[in-house]
Specification:
Helices cover 29% and strands 26% of the residues. By secondary structure, it is of the alpha+beta class. Strands 8, 9, 12, 13, 15, 16, 17, 18 and 21 form a nine-stranded antiparallel sheet that branches. A four-stranded antiparallel sheet has the order 3-4-5-6, with no helix packed on it. The protein is globular and about 85 Å long. β17 and β18 (185-192) form a beta hairpin. It folds into three domains: 17-245, Beta-galactosidase, Chain A, domain 5, CATH 2.70.98; 262-646, Glycosyltransferase (Alpha/alpha barrel), CATH 1.50.10; 664-718, no CATH class.
């Protein structure tokens, strides 16, 4: 079976070919996204993921242009830094007629601009002739829509499909229609602002005459709707204006950050722009969709961690994440969805296969860590904003989440998981591939499984819940949760620490047997502060050793461990968000030099990646002189928590914190790496107040100064 294979009930994306062998171009808007080749084309090459998707369905599966019956040659291709549009410049190769050179290469210039705007994709094309003779030639757009569900694109095979209806041809448009087995009619309209000379179900042909120096312009619009909704028929200029307004509004809502290092700025700007396009406005507020192409949908864990990464710079995103997850919190038991009262969503999917329950992910709760992370994020949000009114609004959801955490503690006192339904996820932590949790001899861990980092999340959730309960004058609940948290920490230290490993166990299996495997999971424990100080230094030595640190980032499983493979999804690869959490944890415990070493690895990696975009993950091979990081073949790019990593790293190196009892920004022992002489932050808000500041490096020391202050906010720097 090609595509997505279900191996022991774990959803797996095999690579029959590599996404790394061609640089794709990505656009996203709302519930739609597009994946193009560098040529601005959509076809079935490579892994076959190219297309324009809307609400989990591919509405455009083929999009090619031909000039004089030939494919144009690529001159340049780029997505604008703000991710608002794809720009492609092309020319024709040498064109022959009756064995004589008719149009020399480079005589015609094609400039193309593509914009995704909600449920539509528009293209503006301009052709300029630099030939010294009048020319008459054909222009063809070739197109198709297969209406595949995203899970079909990933490779899920179906016994039955819906019905494609006969195309409807209009004067300047073709309408393709698919009637799904879920009762939803999906339609794609492919239209042009000029009447084609020839129009069929899959081709629009125009005859063009150009004198020397003349130009020809054409606009095309792909619009997607479900059932009886009306097609969006905006002209390209309207889509461009809407994009410009959205980008300007987003910039105005966030603090601006820049440094004296242009390569660092490139990484920062790309991450900012990627978070912008991945963030979708829901009826509850903004939510960062996980990644393109496979995960352009709300994921609980991904959204929560992305919000933690960016909370200090954009708390509005955290508020949206919390509101969305509160609204979708499970209220009753549903074994097929792995839902239980109080549990926080893992994944929400639109599309035909989820609607028909052919995959269990329409609204799926098979995650052990999203629920405690929800409580943690709510507490961090309050610390950042002082917004007690919103916490009161969320309190029933927070309490339900904590009730789920505490009632699910095992007899040994740990938060465990096991698969409840065939077809759901076997492993339900962040490393959710089927082979990710194992013993030091390579054998599988038997469920129920208690992951080390999940105990840290549960411990912090109970502490955070207690702090919020104190704010709401619920002293009995606060005392109860603190008592449980203290007990969990002691039980954890007693059962998870392995002296001969010099680390905590990756997990305890259902028999209480430790998985004595060195892994990156324990970096999350440093991040949330569960590790006792006397053991932190021993962990740090492990994390900065050559088995853990590849030179680019932290391996998920350390070299030399059972199942270690630098090309695997979770057993030796490098995930930027995972590395960032560990680096922030090192800084929290005062190991700032070690944290800066890890941060430098990710920064150096960003220089090599296309568009300075850190992907979802990359291979964990050792860094070698003169060699770039090695790509993972089917990694998502952009990916929300990979994009958010840089903000967590800046927060860690500057020691950024906030006091909610009075408007105060704290910088605790800030440091800058050798490649940054200064970092400037403008428009950092706390309520209605804002502040501009600059941190300058002097050797290993720094100086902090305020450049502007508006409203009631104080800056305290401990140097």
């Amino acid at each position: 079976m090609e595509g997505s294979i279900q191996i022991d009930n774990s959803w797996y994306i095999p690579a029959t070919s590599s996404r790394a062998d061609d640089r794709t171009r990505v656009l996203k808007s709302g519930e739609s996204f597009a994946v193009f080749s560098r040529h601005g084309e959509i076809s079935w090459v490579g892994f076959g993921e190219q297309g324009f998707y809307f609400l989990g369905t591919r509405h455009l599966s083929f999009w090619h242009i031909k000039l004089a019956e030939r494919e144009p040659m690529l001159l340049n291709s780029m997505v604008r830094l703000d991710n608002s549009r794809l720009l492609v410049d092309q020319t024709t190769p040498d064109l022959f007629h009756d064995e004589s050179l008719w149009i020399p290469k480079g005589s015609l210039h094609l400039h193309r601009e593509m914009i995704a705007n909600d449920n539509s994709l528009s293209e503006y094309l301009k052709i300029v002739s630099y030939h010294d003779q009048p020319l008459r030639f054909s222009l063809e757009y070739q197109f198709d829509a297969d209406f595949s569900d995203i899970f079909e694109v990933r490779g899920v095979h179906r016994a039955q499909h819906g019905k494609q209806k006969e195309p409807r041809l209009e004067q300047d448009a073709v309408i393709l229609t698919y009637e799904g087995l879920d009762g939803v009619t999906r339609r794609t309209r492919l239209g042009f602002n000029k009447h084609p000379d020839e129009l069929t179900r899959d081709t629009a042909k125009f005859w063009i005459e150009l004198a020397p120096g003349e130009s020809y312009e054409l606009e095309s619009l792909v619009s997607c709707v479900h059932d009886e909704a009306q097609f969006d028929l905006l002209v390209h200029a309207q889509s461009a204006s809407a994009k410009n307004r959205a980008v300007a509004a987003d910039r105005a809502a966030s603090a601006a950050i820049w440094t004296d290092n242009e390569q660092f700025n490139d990484w920062l700007d790309r991450s900012t722009a990627d978070l912008r396009i991945l963030t979708t406005e829901t009826c509850y507020g903004p939510y960062p969709y996980a990644g393109i192409p496979w995960f352009s949908t709300p994921f609980g864990r991904d959204g929560l961690i992305t919000a933690l990464q960016t909370l200090w710079v954009r708390p509005e995103l955290t508020r949206g994440v919390l509101a969305f997850l509160a609204a979708t919190q499970a209220e009753s038991d549903n074994p097929y969805q792995e839902a239980e009262p109080g549990k926080i969503l893992h994944e929400l999917r639109e599309g035909e296969l989820p609607a028909l329950n052919e995959v269990p992910f329409r609204r799926y709760y098979g995650t052990v860590d999203a629920t405690p992370l929800f409580v943690v994020l709510a507490s961090h949000y309050f610390q950042r904003t002082g917004d007690l009114a919103f916490i009161r609004q969320l309190w029933p959801n927070i309490e339900e989440a904590l009730n789920w955490v505490t009632t699910k503690l095992s007899q040994d006192g740990f938060l465990c998981y096991h698969q409840h339904v065939k077809g759901g996820l076997v492993q339900q932590g962040w490393k959710d591939s089927n082979d990710s949790i194992f013993h030091d001899d390579g054998s599988d861990a038997v469920p129920p499984i208690a992951l080390c980092e999940v105990q840290g999340y549960a411990w912090e959730a109970m502490k955070c819940g207690a702090d919020l309960a104190d704010r709401l004058q619920l002293e009995d609940k606060a005392s109860y949760w603190r008592t449980l948290a203290d007990r969990l920490r002691e039980d954890f230290e007693a059962n998870f620490w392995l002296d001969d490993l010099d680390m905590y166990a990756l997990a305890l299996d259902g028999n209480g047997k430790p998985c004595a495997v060195r892994s990156s999971n324990q970096g999350h424990l440093l991040y949330n502060g569960m590790v006792k100080p006397e053991r932190a230094a021993r962990l740090v030595r492990q994390f900065t050793g050559e088995n853990a640190f590849s030179g680019w980032g932290l391996r998920t499983i350390f070299a030399g461990e059972a199942r270690y493979n630098p090309m695997s999804y979770h057993n030796g690869s490098v995930w930027p968000h995972d590395t960032a959490l560990a680096a922030a944890g090192l800084a929290r415990y005062g190991f700032i030099d070690e944290a800066l070493k890890i941060i430098e690895g990710l920064f150096d990696a960003s220089i090599f990646f296309d568009q300075h975009r850190l992907p979802e993950l990359f291979c964990g091979f050792n860094r070698l002189p003169g060699q770039a990081p090695i790509l993972y073949p089917v990694a998502c790019a952009p990916q929300a928590w990979a994009s958010g990593a840089i903000f967590m790293l800046i927060e860690a190196m500057l020691g950024i914190g906030f006091d909610c009892d009075q408007p105060r920004l704290r910088l605790l022992y800030p440091r800058l790496p050798s490649y940054l002489n200064w970092i400037r932050i403008r428009g950092l808000r706390y309520g209605s107040a804002s502040i501009d500041l600059v941190v300058r490096r002097h050797g290993k020391d720094v100086a902090v100064s305020t450049e502007r202050r508006s409203g009631d906010i104080e800056l305290i720097a401990v140097l």
